[in-house]
Amino acid sequence: MFDVRPVAYVIGLLVACLGACMLLPLVVDLAEGRGEWPVFLESASITMLAGGLTSLSCANAVKKGLTLQQTFLLTTGVWVALPVFGALPFVLGATGVSYTDAFFEAMSGMTTTGSTVLTNLDGLPKGLLLWRGLLQWLGGIGIIVVAMVFLPELRVGGMQIFRSEAFDTMGKILPRATQISASISSIYISLTLFCTISYLLCGMNAFDATVHAMTTVSTGGFSNYNASFGTFSGPAEYVASVFMILAALPFVRYVQMVAGHRFVLLSDSQVLTFLAIIGTLVVVTSITLLSIFPHHPEQAVREALFNITSIISGTGYASVDYMSWGPFLIAMFFFIGLIGGCAGSTACSVKIFRYQLLFASIRVQLRRIRAPHGVFVPRYQGRPVGPDVLSSVMSFFVFFVVSLGVLSVALSLTGLDFITSVSGAATAIANIGPGLGDTIGPAGNFSSLSDTAKWILSFAMLVGRLEILAVFALFTIGFWRA
Hints:
Layout: H1 5-21, H2 23-32, H3 37-58, H4 68-86, H5 88-92, H6 99-110, H7 126-154, H8 173-201, H9 206-217, H10 235-247, H11 251-258, H12 269-292, H13 297-312, H14 327-336, H15 352-370, E1 379-380, E2 383-384, H16 387-412, H17 418-429, H18 437-440, H19 451-465, H20 469-472, H21 477-481
Antiparallel strand pairs: 1-2
């Protein structure tokens, strides 16, 4: 019989921790003096009580490790449970939104998508703005652990190719998660602190610098203002671009650098390919913008660098309404959002390594056509790639494309136009943030969508953040029979 108690125990602990985190915005609200602090006191009490009681009731079933089925369920269950409770401050607070909108905002935060339904960010209490940033910051560090521990063990989407990267994989899953969490937490916190200081030097106040540092390093993209990052045009855009790139690189390489391998980043083909793609796209975009705005070369380069980096990393900040940049750049922005960053980072979408494996497989197939009797093996980082990895990657691509199509059709059935449906599905499943068009584009938000559309998009964010297959496996009969 399938035992859910070990899973519920871990989820309960994490929910209780989330409730404890609500005390930070409570303190901020007290300092601001707007009388909003009871919202977080009530939310924290409910969340810690629910999480604590769940853990206590299941504590006697905890074992040293989890079965494969329990690990699948835990991976998805955490990303469902946390937004359920993370939505409470939005419902009880000054936003005036329904639970549907609150859950959408919380799911967007935890999955670091960055789509928002809130329309008056400039007037919200600081506690709620900090809570949005905290959700993304916690989601960012959480997804690194998932990407480095759980997904490789579950052999999801080709992630098993990273099972031997920097960490001993022979231990049980939960002890290994603790080991990796301890290793990357200091790096994640350090990046956040450096980003905060850099923003302060660019003229941001302490609160804005802190919140935007959290949403930059998590590649989340929540901002404190309706104009998003357009409020800070100038040097802050360069700072944001640098830290978005750093957050989109594999954190396992930072761990190895701290351990003494100084040049390990430069030996990673993922990193080199990612930087090359950004450089190429920035040059193309800058040249195109210079043809439109010939008298502002520095601004063209800055806006190109910032917005390209924001979209490809899945951060979702917007400094300008790039819908006015012409059809070529609009189409390019749609497709670069489907590239993503490196595996084991806070970035989202398909990821660089999968495209590398896809093209390696295509090259091998072409060589086999030319030389039918030859023996050709696809390689990654100089190592042969097994058929299980290639099969997993190809399955991911198929599921990604099919899911994108199904979600687009589902959104269109709610009354949305073609551009909004397709870009909305893409931005949700790739966890990018803004879509295309006047409604959900960089100058709009998701508040006008129907409740049905918001629940569809919330599900898409969950599926995309957990690499699709980890969620869909729960809907198969064979999973529960195993």
